[in-house]
Amino acid sequence: YDRSRPVAPDDVFDEVMQRASLSAGSTVVEIGPGTGQATRHLAARGLQVVAVELGPHLAERARANLAAFPNVSVVTASFESWDPGTACFDTVFACNSFHWIDRDIRFVKAATVLRPGGHLVVLATPWVVPETADRFWWEVQDDWAAVGARFDPSTMHPDLIRDDLAPAVRASGVFDEPTTTRRTFEVTFTAEGYATNL
Known about the structure:
This protein is of the alpha/beta class. It is 30% helix and 17% strand. Strand 1 (27-31), helix 2 (37-44) and strand 2 (48-53) form a beta-alpha-beta unit. The radius of gyration is 18 Å and the shape is globular.
């Protein structure tokens, strides 16, 4: 996971900074940082990050990976059970993790820990296979079947990926109208990296 999971390009994090009106010193609570791949991008921009990670082994790896950033603290807890005390944040940020949070409380808890005017930023990087993708993805179906996964490129065109989050944000009643940005970016694997990711 730590070695092979791709993260969004650097300019995506520049856009996060701009859209959420963040600057060096702004405070962020990150939900589910894993081993800190996205956290590193936030920390490098001078943000004060509290990363809340449920998995103790992932949290331990994140602390090691982020040791060079004194502006990051990693808390081992679920977001649902985490107690922020009286702290309020400029942004609640989740990269490929928000869908794991209990649907009954995820928006309310996020809104509760935000300062007035704060932002919820949810970054998702689903695999997509545009028509211009390398034919490799069509040729490796047996690999995916062997590990018990399903990877059907015909169902993974970018235009077929639905935005299920924006309607849920609207229905929550605790956030203003969501803004959605979509873009594709290319991921290149070595043979070893592909096998590790698989």
